[in-house]
Amino acid sequence: MAFTIDLTGKVVLVTGGISGIGLGVSMQFAQAGATVIACAELPLSDKMVASFFLEMEPYQQRTFYYEADVSQEAAITKLATLLEQEHGRLDILISNAGRNVFKGLDDCTVADWNSNSTLNLSSHWLLAKNLKPLLVQASPGVIIIMASNHAYASIRGCFPYNVTKGALLSLVRAMAIEWAPTVRTVGLAPGFIDTPGNQKWFDTFPDAHQERQKTIDSHPVKRLGTAEEIGGWCVFLSSGYASFASGATYLIDGGRSALLQEE
Description:
The protein is an alpha/beta fold. It folds into two domains: 11-190 and 226-252, NAD(P)-binding Rossmann-like Domain (Rossmann fold, 3-Layer(aba) Sandwich); 195-224, no CATH class. It contains eight helices and seven strands. The chain has helices spanning 20-31, 47-55, 73-86, 110-138, 161-179, 196-202, 208-217, 227-238, and strands at residues 11-15, 35-40, 63-67, 92-95, 141-146, 183-190, 249-252. It has a seven-stranded parallel beta sheet with strand order 3-2-1-4-5-6-7, sandwiched between helices. Helix 1 packs across helix 8, helix 3 (73-86) packs parallel to helix 4 (110-138) and helix 4 (110-138) packs parallel to helix 5 (161-179). The model has no long low-confidence stretch (mean pLDDT 95).
């Protein structure tokens, strides 16, 4: 018998769901039959939103988009109200929205610290807290928090991003302890994923191609991950096959953390 995951009838919210890892997640849930609601801080008229709907065109009857800057508590409250009024249910929350804030200890300002903490940590808690009433009705609802390999081991110049990603591991555990059994919470910690955002980071080096290849070579699997692979993990962890998984964050980094790195 084939191993299949059918999420027909399930409703999933993917924050930051129109590009990068978020787009891969949205696509995989749509392919599994779920109704996909994506949100981002961009207005509906933005060309990136139009590109998202083009990518999701085969699933257009089950695809929705809301403008919501999840770093703003008022926007989170409004989003929760809209979801309840217009959909009446939420089975799965993929709390993915975030931004690289790479400053380094000496260069980081208080403003950098605060903006990073708000988006990359506080927003995950506030979003889950506001959507909990809907998730509880799914019994159990599922929350997946998108952390990062920087939660486990980082590199120079990635402060304060790495601090908040580490804190997300504790947030996952706290939610799993306090909200079970009506809400099940797990985390994902992707490593280097081949997205436009990572390519933008490679482009900051004098030889982007060389730096990209150096990064690939540092992985035992000799490649970068894909957004679709992370989406597949999200679909599996949201399914009944993973119903005993709770409170853990899964590191998906192509074996890079298993290998001692030389500088």
